[in-house]
């Protein structure tokens, strides 16, 4: 089955399937964004909680911009950040 056109055109999706690129992205996320957020969250599960939070942001971005689900794609930025 061929995925929808927006998904086929998605460079993040194609890049993530390349192990070398995935490793670079993973290290960048873990060593920078997730590490900073984990320090702010604190506690023994700060890393896990930070990565869960980032996964929510990444999933929202994916569904809104790549997949284009109706409700997320139609929502304006202000509505999503209330």
Protein architecture, described:
78% of the residues lie in helices and 0% in strands. The chain is an all-alpha fold and 82 residues long. Helix 3 crosses helix 4 (46-67). The radius of gyration is 15 Å and the shape is flat. It starts with a helix and ends with a helix. 4% of the residues are buried.
Helical stretch count? 6
Strand content: under 5%
> Total number of β-strand segments?
0
Structural class: mainly alpha
Distance between the termini: 38 Å
Assign an overall shape. Answer: flat
Helix content: over 70%
- Compute the CA-based radius of gyration: 15 Å
Low-pLDDT runs of 5+ residues are none
- Biggest pleated sheet: none
SSE sequence, one letter per element: HHHHHH
Average pLDDT over all residues:
86
